[in-house]
UniProtKB/TrEMBL annotation:
InterPro entries: Acyl_CoA_acyltransferase, Glycosyl_Hydrolase_84, GNAT_dom. It comes from Lentinus tigrinus ALCF2SS1-6. Transmembrane segments: none annotated. PROSITE patterns: GNAT. This is Acyl-CoA N-acyltransferase.
Amino acid sequence: MATSGVFIREARTADSPLLNRICLLTGDAGTSAEHLHTSGELIGLVYAEPYVHLPTGFGFVMVDPAKDDAVVGYALSTYNTRAFEQAALDAWYPRVRAKYAYPPDANEGATDADKRYINILHNPSRAPQAAVDFSPAHMHIDILPEYQRQGWGRRLIARVVVHLREERGLEKMWLGLDPRNDGAKRFYEALGFKELPGAPDGTMGLDFKDFRG
């Protein structure tokens, strides 16, 4: 499809519902995870929305004027992963976990995928130390399928790189991807990302001097 009118701007708190939706529609190794969930909001409550609600997060979104200025893709980041994790513990997870009982099996009708994310809400995981040692900054990026393979991912990542370098004085960042998503791995490698030694499979780091944006 033609995306000539699409533009990138800073992410806002008001974008939260659409960030959540995009996260779900790309949440199964790059394809829709709708079929895996009864509560479709869960994946976005973990991997998308906190970045526009917490002071240690920021991001950029793609907007399509042809769809009433709908957000159709995003790159979300933090300049300090450990501070972001603490802020989420203090101010995000207590609020969003309230509607989901613990243990996860206590939620009637919850799927296995639901239970996995409910467990994360109540017991948030920490980023691998090997990744944080590489850089305090990390990023998530998701774009709706019809907007992929048109250079938007490269542009979004470039905006994050510029922000981290110019506003925060950083020279590296990392991300995690589903190891099943071979296409995403090839995309990141083409931009200069490399697998991080000592980190879990699918953790890739970018030294900004290697960025091919």
